[in-house]
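Reopening this one. Same input as before:
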Amino acid sequence: MNTPRLVATDLDGTALRSDGTVSSRTAAAFARVEESGAVLVLVTGRPPRWMREVAEVVGHRGVAICANGALVYDLHTEQILESHLIQADVLVEVVDQLRANIPGLAFSVEYEGGFAHESDFRLGGLDRRSGRGSGVAPGILTSRPCAKLLALHPEMDPDGLHGAVHELVGHLVTATHSSRSALVEMSAHGITKATALAALARRHGIGPEDAVAFGDMPNDLPMLAWAGRSYAVANAHRDVLAVVGQTTEANDEDGVARVLEELYR
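Same output, byte for byte:
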């Protein structure tokens, strides 16, 4: 196989261990990619404010596509390079439509810098552990453009909630999900991991045939379809395993690093 000119990998559930850490083996594999002259892209649903620890462990290598394609973030300088935001009027309409049709939803938003959430939105991940942020009124939540809108339901099936959200507001935003809980992530209409990755690749003169991608959840599917070569980790969502032809070991077994070691000898 030809050595790819671009490597795009999801983080949580894919390149990161289940405890959110980057193994030394994966960090070394990432270094090998960039030292070879290839472009390393970390493509994640995470906001930039969740990227500092990852950036430090990987030696500030590469660029990150954050918030499912809404923000392009330089890991070398820790600066946002590009933004694709949901405008405030669209945000208001989406929240109103969802609240009227799916009782029990709670909302949060990711801005270019920082976040806000309703008081009944159950924080997860790094936000829960850090205790940062306080609940705000819905009108404040939707008062300015954001990179990502999140809707959480306490009981629904994750795939079922995603389908319902897409049916209601899919003409206004792009909805996806990457969690085992009923949490839907929404970006500006037409914005996905793949659109941001394709644009970045074009700037480097790289086509999909020279790219390899790794992922585990439905929000990775557009990216995995775009890349000329794609791998699902063994622990991936059933929808990902069903359509991605190649698999590697699970995230806790350094599956991404194993493939990169073979590609960049």
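So the earlier flakiness isn't reproducible anymore. For the record, The chain has a mean pLDDT of 93.
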